[in-house]
């Protein structure tokens, strides 16, 4: 009989399994003799092999008795044959009345069960414990609910967390504090239910005033408001804090400053830093980094440098995030030499550069056409003990291909393989795309074969690049063979693949096949993108179907922002109309183009200048009018592009036109420098 064994003897059984099971029939004796042991059992500290107990201490006539089990939150091995035995807790444990002794009397056992089920994510058993405690009129503590809220958060069930919070008062007779409120609103925010989070805050805190908020409450709400772009409401909430006897902390200021910077309200963010000093809240490196990041993104490096000086004055040492932000800002402004010197200063200040630092610099160098310098930086990076990631190699390979240096790109690839770095889909895609741009699609296909052997499946980008390569070399049939392979694999087919095929067929004068692919794309439920629309329109217009091209263009306009025509699309229509002598209709399309916020480019101007030249006009008045119209709409870049076209065509703008553009583009002290640079660029071209 089980009674013959003392509680201490149970420790002699194996403990490798996740279950502890005892016949219900023997629970009264066991629990009365050792209540503390039962609580420990409920806490799942003990792990007793249920099979061992059955074989060693349970007679055969007890085999039909029901068992209950308390499962440990620790995950059992997947190959454990006992893993499937019994539920985590049997419901019969709650039906045995007073005979359960200490289990009936001790609330702490219930609390332990709640903790275990919450950690294990067993919501059904957790809710059963709450129901039983309510039925027995147990005393609930707030910690029980906070554990449940966390479990609901892991299970993505914010609605249940809200429902449980509202039941705390009436059903469970437990008054929630701000701890419970913060736990619930954090769950709702993390699940992306922003409107419900704000409604919950407004109901509990503002209207009913059932809970007094603390600084964490305000931090959560301010962060949410800033995330939604409602910075003014965030400021109002921030100003309410002193009236609620809540002192903003460094996180409050940091969150609000970040929101202001993202809304391009940098002056207010800087003023908030000054206010922070006055209120006695000591800023951290993260606080300064928020401001530095905002100023660098705006391109105001001078003010960013002043913030760094202020940082030193306040006794706050710049960290790697500070340096990375400054280096990124310098790269965005094209000041690569200063960025490299800042890297050296970073090292001298005993601040260790990380992968982000080097990746930012390499990317900046590549964008300026200095992939060779980027490769040198890569070597320096590896000498300092940094392992280069796939992003850096991908950036360098792409840079060398763009600079028409495929041999260096392949050398980087081989060096990477020799160093034992396993290529991923991004690296393979970069190499395939580069080889196809170099008119070597067959070599690119060999790379894809190697890629598949390595267990890396090509994606839509890889197949699209290969098809582009074959189309560009005139191998339309090979490109269509690849397309058939793509069609067999639905997981890689998307709008981009369709656009590439349509563009390739239209460019190679195979309009009927392009129309067939277009119709197939629509029948499959794919929405054409701007490239597909432009390619199809171009194919129709080139084959003399201008009216059909216009219908497709108008359909594109009706589709909405997802397929909004760009300057290439407009140029296709404008060129077709002007070639057919429909200049007035072309002017209407140009007006529509300007109204939709699309700026004309060099191709647009050349289309109209060619037509006007055939009519005996030089086109200067037409371009002047374009400049004035763009100026009225405050589209400075577009106006400057038109001026540049006029200078290239030796069409001298009027003094009033010069004045319009120069005043908007240049600062008074830099007008001459800007004009000289403009003429210098024209001379070099």
UniProtKB/TrEMBL annotation:
Stretches forming PPR repeats: 214-248, 249-283, 284-318, 319-353, 354-388, 389-423, 424-458, 459-493, 494-528, 529-563, 566-600
Keywords of this entry: Repeat
Superkingdom of the source species: Eukaryota
Protein name as catalogued: Putative pentatricopeptide repeat (PPR) superfamily protein
InterPro entries attached to this UniProt entry: PPR_rpt (IPR002885), TPR-like_helical_dom_sf (IPR011990)
PANTHER family linked: PENTACOTRIPEPTIDE-REPEAT REGION OF PRORP DOMAIN-CONTAINING PROTEIN (PTHR45613:SF99), PENTATRICOPEPTIDE REPEAT-CONTAINING PROTEIN (PTHR45613)
NCBIfam families per record: PPR
């Amino acid at each position: 009989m089980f009674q013959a064994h003392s509680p201490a003897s149970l420790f002699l059984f194996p403990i490798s399994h996740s279950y502890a099971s005892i016949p219900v029939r023997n629970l009264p004796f066991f629990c009365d003799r050792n209540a503390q042991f039962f609580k420990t059992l409920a806490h799942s500290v003990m792990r007793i092999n249920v099979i061992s107990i059955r074989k060693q201490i349970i007679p055969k006539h007890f085999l039909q008795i029901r068992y209950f089990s308390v499962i440990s939150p620790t995950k059992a091995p997947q190959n454990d044959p006992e893993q499937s035995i019994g539920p985590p807790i049997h419901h019969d444990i709650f039906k045995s009345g007073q005979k359960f002794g200490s289990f009936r009397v001790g609330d702490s056992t219930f609390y332990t069960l709640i903790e275990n089920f919450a950690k294990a994510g067993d919501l059904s058993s957790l809710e059963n414990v709450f129901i039983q405690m309510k039925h027995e009129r147990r005393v609930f503590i707030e910690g029980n609910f906070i554990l449940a809220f966390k479990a609901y958060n892991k299970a993505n069930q914010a609605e249940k967390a809200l429902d449980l919070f509202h039941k705390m008062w009436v059903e469970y007779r437990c008054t929630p504090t701000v701890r419970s409120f913060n736990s619930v609103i954090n769950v709702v925010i993390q699940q992306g239910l922003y409107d419900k989070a704000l409604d919950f805050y407004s109901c509990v805190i503002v209207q009913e005033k059932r809970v007094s908020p603390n600084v964490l409450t305000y931090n959560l709400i301010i962060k949410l408001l800033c995330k939604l772009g409602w910075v003014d409401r965030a400021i109002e909430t921030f100003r309410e804090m002193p009236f609620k006897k809540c002192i903003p902390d460094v996180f409050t200021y940091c969150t609000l400053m970040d929101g202001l910077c993202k809304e391009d309200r940098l002056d207010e963010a800087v003023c908030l830093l000054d206010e922070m000093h006055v209120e006695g809240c000591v800023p951290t490196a993260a606080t300064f980094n928020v401001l530095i990041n905002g100023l660098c993104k705006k391109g105001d490096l001078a003010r960013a440098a002043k913030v760094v000086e202020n940082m030193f004055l306040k006794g706050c040492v710049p960290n790697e995030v500070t340096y990375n932000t400054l280096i990124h800002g310098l790269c965005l402004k094209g000041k690569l030499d200063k960025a490299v010197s800042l890297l050296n200063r970073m090292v001298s200040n005993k601040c260790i550069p990380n992968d982000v630092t080097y990746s930012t610099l390499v990317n900046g160098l590549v964008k300026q056409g200095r992939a060779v310098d980027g490769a040198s930086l890569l070597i320096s990076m590896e000498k300092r003990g940094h392992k280069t990631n796939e992003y850096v190699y991908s950036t360098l390979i792409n840079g060398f291909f763009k600079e028409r240096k495929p041999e260096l790109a392949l050398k980087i690839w081989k060096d990477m393989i020799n160093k034992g770095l396993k290529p991923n889909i991004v690296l393979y895609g970069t190499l395939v795309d580069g080889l196809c741009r170099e008119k070597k699609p067959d070599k690119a296909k060999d790379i894809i074969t190697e890629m598949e052997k390595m267990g890396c499946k090509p994606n839509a980008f890889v197949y699209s690049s290969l098809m582009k390569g074959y189309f560009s070399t005139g191998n339309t049939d090979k490109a269509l063979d690849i397309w058939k392979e793509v069609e067999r694999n639905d997981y890689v087919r998307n709008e981009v693949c369709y656009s590439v095929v349509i563009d390739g067929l239209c460019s190679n004068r195979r309009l009927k096949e392009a129309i067939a692919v277009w119709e197939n794309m629509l029948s499959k439920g794919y929405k054409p993108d701007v490239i597909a629309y432009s390619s199809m329109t171009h194919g129709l217009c080139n084959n003399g179907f201008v009216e059909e091209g216009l219908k497709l263009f108008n359909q594109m306009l009706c589709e909405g922002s997802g397929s909004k025509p760009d300057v290439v699309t407009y140029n296709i229509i404008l060129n077709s109309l002007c070639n057919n002598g429909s200049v007035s209709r072309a002017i209407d399309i140009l007006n529509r183009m300007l109204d939709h916020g699309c700026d004309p480019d060099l191709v647009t101007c050349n289309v109209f200048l060619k037509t006007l030249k055939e009519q005996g006009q030089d086109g200067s008045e037409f371009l002047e009018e374009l400049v004035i119209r763009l100026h009225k709409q405050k589209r400075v870049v577009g106006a400057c592009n038109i001026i540049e076209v006029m200078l290239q065509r030796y069409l001298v703008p009027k003094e009033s036109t010069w004045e319009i553009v120069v005043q908007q583009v240049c600062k008074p002290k830099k007008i001459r420098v800007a004009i000289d640079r403009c003429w210098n660029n024209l001379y070099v071209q």
